[in-house]
């Protein structure tokens, strides 16, 4: 009788022990454990979306870079064309004015090529008048374009504007001043483009 009362508790204890062992080893996957596949799919979709955005940004930046290169090349070509035209046609106005001088010179030459019986005095007078007109026209053209002839006589010698070719005795002039000019000097907009050849006064030693 004592043996029959001990059997059921032993069977129940074995059943509980088997269930606990199954839960500890992970054999029983209950509804409280979420599956891993949806999480992996979410991560892949997020990476694909980021990759698509990055590709779009790269495409936009590449297009902007190519447009900037094209614009830069167009600006370079236009600038080069402008510089070339400036070199070629920069003196167009000056040349157009010089043509008028050529016309005066041609008319003067034609008026002095007469017959053998022309009065030499009259011919010489025409030549002088023509040359005087040419000089006046040239000087007006020079002034118009910023080219100015120096007038250094009586002024102090300046090595930046003058080139000494001789010395002359300082009679009524201060030593170191320009006494004569053998070749006119010119300035273009204030910059010396040709030095005046001058004679400078110096003290005479008797």
UniProtKB/TrEMBL annotation:
What name appears for this protein in its UniProt entry?
Answer: GrpE protein homolog 2, mitochondrial
Kindly list the residue ranges recorded as spanning the membrane. Answer: none
Q: What is its main location?
A: mitochondrion
Q: Which domain of life is it from?
A: Eukaryota
Molecular functions (GO terms): adenyl-nucleotide exchange factor activity; protein homodimerization activity; protein-folding chaperone binding; unfolded protein binding
One annotated Gene Ontology cellular component of this protein: PAM complex, Tim23 associated import motor
What is said about its interaction partners and assembly? Probable component of the PAM complex at least composed of a mitochondrial HSP70 protein, GRPEL1 or GRPEL2, TIMM44, TIMM16/PAM16 and TIMM14/DNAJC19.
Q: Which UniProt keywords apply?
A: Acetylation, Chaperone, Coiled coil, Mitochondrion, Transit peptide
CDD domains xrefs: GrpE
Q: Which organism is it from?
A: Podarcis muralis (Wall lizard)
Q: Where does the record place a coiled coil?
A: 44-71
Family as reported in the entry's similarity comment: Belongs to the GrpE family.
Pfam families found in the cross-reference section? GrpE
Does the keyword section mention Transport? no
GO term, biological process aspect, one: protein folding
Keyword Cell inner membrane among UniProt keywords: no
Which parts of this chain are annotated as the region Disordered? Answer: 18-38
State its role: Essential component of the PAM complex, a complex required for the translocation of transit peptide-containing proteins from the inner membrane into the mitochondrial matrix in an ATP-dependent manner. Seems to control the nucleotide-dependent binding of mitochondrial HSP70 to substrate proteins. Stimulates ATPase activity of mt-HSP70. May also serve to modulate the interconversion of oligomeric (inactive) and monomeric (active) forms of mt-HSP70.
**Intracellular or extracellular location(s):** Mitochondrion matrix
